[in-house]
Amino acid sequence: MPKITRESIIKKRGFPIWIKGDKLTLYISNYQSTTEYLAKRIGDKEKIICELCCGVGITLKELARTFKYVIGVDYNKKVVANCRENAKVFGVSDKTEIILGNISNSKLFKKIRADIVIYDIPYWNIGLTENTGLEQNNPNLKRLVDDIKKLITKDIIICAPPYYTYTEAKKDFGRCECESIFINNKHDRNYIYLGSLVKRQGTTKVVL
């Protein structure tokens, strides 16, 4: 198996070579193709969207082009600094606010005003052996989503690992929609839609 490097991640994911971010942060980011797809599906020039665990801003960049305004939240100072720098170079800093904060503290949500929230689950079985167990750092999903619903909005997208399926999401949240995202014939992740973002209940396969 070829060694995973920062350079190989940038090439495989379709990121620009100048992108700011370390290997882990880039590895757990969405592919360029998935961010474009998501922005096309949910984009709304009249609405504000917030991404929790925004990383270095790969998804925020596309959302800024299809939404009125975007808010990103991450707990890591270096990641937030890289995200702000990337937003400048992408030319979307005037439509972007990046907040340094820990999403495990629900008090943070009281300061956020958004029509839609994306929770991009940061850690799961990502295949980098030196990071085994990082998924334990994630907050409890059901409690987090309940806090988002109560304090920000009921229109939520969960960017989840492939093994978190429609069955689990329906059990946790009731009415929902799951899109299974395939890239290069590999099941890369699932998008779980809640609230008014649900177009149809069940699972749909999306090949990018």
Provide structural commentary.
This protein has one domain: 3-Layer(aba) Sandwich (Rossmann fold), CATH 3.40.50.150. The chain is α/β, with parallel strands linked by helices. Helix 3 packs parallel to helix 4 (58-66). The model is unreliable at 126-132 (pLDDT under 50). It is built from 7 helices and 8 strands, in the order H-H-H-E-H-E-H-E-E-H-E-H-E-E-E. Strand 2, helix 5 (77-90) and strand 3 form a beta-alpha-beta unit. Strands 3-2-1-4-5-7-6-8 form an 8-stranded mixed sheet, sandwiched between helices.
Which structural class do the helices and strands define?
alpha/beta
- What fraction of the residues are assigned to beta strands by DSSP? 25-35%
Number of helices: 7
Q: Can you list the strand order of the major beta sheet?
A: 3-2-1-4-5-7-6-8
- End-to-end CA span: 24 Å
Note the run of SSEs as H and E: HHHEHEHEEHEHEEE
Query: What's the average pLDDT?
Result: 92
CATH architecture level-2 label: 3-Layer(aba) Sandwich
Sketch the major β-sheet. Answer: 8 strands, mixed
Shape: globular
CATH class: Alpha Beta
Given as residue ranges, the uncertain stretches (5+ residues, pLDDT < 50) are 126-132
**How many domain units?**
1
CATH fold label: Rossmann fold
Rg estimate, integer Å: 16 Å
Relative helix content: 25-40%
Number of strands: 8
The fourth-level CATH homologous superfamily is Vaccinia Virus protein VP39
